[in-house]
Amino acid sequence: MQLQALLDFFEKVAPLHLQESYDNAGLITGNPEMEISGVITCLDSTEAVVKEAIELGSNVIVAHHPIIFSGLKSLTGANYIQRTIQMAIKHDIAIVAMHTNLDNVFQHGVNERIAKRLGLEDLQILRPKDPTEPQIGSGMIGELPSSIESMSFLKELKLKMGVNCIKYTQIHTPMIKKVAVAGGSGGFLLKDAIQQGADIFITADFKYHEFFDANDQIIIADIGHYESEQYTIELLSELINDNFVKFAARTTKMVTNPVNYL
Prior knowledge:
Elements: H1 3-13, E1 26-29, E2 39-44, H2 47-56, E3 60-65, H3 80-90, E4 94-97, H4 100-103, H5 110-117, E5 121-130, E6 133-149, H6 150-160, E7 167-168, E8 175-185, H7 190-195, E9 200-204, E10 219-222, H8 225-229, H9 232-241, E11 249-251
Parallel strand pairs: 2-3, 2-11, 3-4, 8-9, 9-10
Antiparallel strand pairs: 1-4, 5-6, 6-8, 7-10
């Protein structure tokens, strides 16, 4: 099967026109007419993941994050981006990114996967791109089946999302019922979470002073960028394996998180 068939499928799941203006989702290396021998799904298409693909005989990598966000002026191997691209091209490996276009869809999207892991119900997009299209936009909000004590929820959050630590603001309310989530850097959605009455907003990459913006109106829980999006890896693999039978999609065994905890 040619790569174009996989790209066409992705276009139905999360069309490229839904990506943000700064993004670079889609086909990054490779020829749409190449025959697929196997697929590796990952969060980041690093050198280690390309080596893994080579060892497994897989010639397509489907990543969440684009390895290239802006134009490259040289390919000298000076940094990990250039080395990854060089290795992929040398070994005829295609790299595809499903980034903010996958963030911005309701069904089979990044935030739906987070919400389901947390057991949220009555899901809605947190910030729809257009009021007439409520199924497209950023973040997600839903409710727990029943209210839970705030610290107990944070402990469950740590377990369900598989995180080493959580940075959170002062607990101003004893119980949590309504929950907002956003995979990756979701700080821009804080006001939306507050306006919609969320008790807690789960996302990543809050800076020190930004935690003050909770303003005793909501609990901010920063679980880490990689940690918030890590289950996108299995989401991508499931989407492929549930719809194609001529090749196998495997999740990477490489942990590409650049952040370590002691």
